[in-house]
Design goal:
CATH class of the largest domain: Mainly Alpha
Number of domains: 2
Structural class: alpha+beta
Helix content: 40-55%
Radius of gyration: 26 Å
Number of strands: 6
CATH topology of the largest domain: Arc Repressor Mutant, subunit A
Distance between the termini: 69 Å
Strand order of the largest sheet: 1-3-2
CATH superfamily of the largest domain: Winged helix-like DNA-binding domain superfamily/Winged helix DNA-binding domain
Number of helices: 9
Shape: elongated
Amino acid sequence: MDKERLKGIIESILFTMGAAVELEDLARTLEIDPDQLRWILCEMREDYKAEDRGIGLMELENSWQLCTRRENYEYIRRLVAQPKKRTLTDVLMETLSIIAYKQPVTRQEIESIRGVKSDFAVNKLVEYQLVRELGRLDTIGHPIVFGTTEEFLRCFGVSSIENLPDIDEMKRQDFLEEAEMEIGTQVEVPT
């Protein structure tokens, strides 16, 4: 295969992948010797530098990735607004906590615990990809059950829902007393 054609294919692959691609994987895909491929990648990197291109080629350990040249970052930043950091309101945090600790849980169960409609909160959490639909219950109405996502685990720094912090008994008792005062009756909590 012509070397220029090969460079074009490599560029397409790296552009499409977006992330770093292992040299061995790229060599296997292109059916080329890894040492020869490394030589071509180094040549491409130098070409990008010499031509003052907007992108560059970066080697990360034994992987390669297309990247934006640092000198151009300011212009990119001007065009692209900083991503708006989504904040979780008290309502969203309360709803998310219920889902995290009670999953799988239906919207009706969430509303029963919160005492108010939770459509907006649940929909927002799904939009933020912190919560997802797990399926439907095989009961009347086939309600949707919700649970947390991998994004939830990433955002809150836990490796699984089993690693969520325990609610200590003192806090639990405070929450119970607050709930009883709000509704004016004693609340029974399953243990």
